[in-house]
Amino acid sequence: MALTYKFHLLRPFQNLLGPCWRQIIKLRYLKAYHRFLPEKNPVTYHEKVLWLLLHSDLKEWAWRADKYRVRDYVARVGGEDLLPQLYGVYDNADEIDFDSLPQSFVLKTNNGCTTNLIVPDKSKLDIAATRRLLNSWLTLKYGNLTGERHYSLIQPKLICEEMLVDHEHPGSSLIDYKFNCFNGVPRSVTVYSDRVAGTHRKSYMVYDMDWNPMPEVLDTSCENLTLAKPMERPACFDRLKELAATFSRDFPYLRVDFYIIDGQPKFGELTFTPGFDTYYTADYYRQLGEMIEIPATMSR
Fold it and tell me: With a threshold of 0.90, does the pTM exceed it?
């Protein structure tokens, strides 16, 4: 998977950038909104998300954002059946015994974004090149480069999991179901489909918790996104809502991601700090911001 040009440009400075994570977040906000991030009384969605980033116990965030450690948490709260099969976890790519792996699998880092390698047929894999790529990903300090400090607190590892295939939608990318949750209450789900591998390009639609489509809240000017046609309500949607509520109950805001494979839910990941892409309208971002309740102990 290709990393953005920005990451390649800044990578030589990633160790220096680590201590500056607060400044990086504020600069990213300034670039996105052309105003300074307020020091007090956050109002909008991104203001509150970043307020939480700047004032929360990030060690609590880190192990839930860790794509390896979160598996224990998911299993502990009764979601073991949601987890893709784990084939191995490694400190570096030289530890991987490719001969012992099945014909298809997914390799990814536990602490980043877009560092995923989908292998549908390992007989076509250049093993030496793959090891170089994976070891390069392990040295990428995603949290330092983005200012998302909780990712920097994750011990980098490689994990190998089963490659999920949804036979109900053959020939297409997996469909993502991303729930916006507030203190354990899911309020909307953004559904992504038709992803272009190695990019952020995809189709999308938002639904409320009764599965009513909400195209009016989408910003269709985003160049990476295409408006999708409304889908049928998944048969397991009620369970997805219950699971999203369980995983998010301890946090003012958390995005909980799932797939549906052959009609059954599969866990994706937990995300505390979705990016600055303008997926929604400004009005809907304001509505989402109103749903985030900053704890009184943090707003003092």
Answer: yes
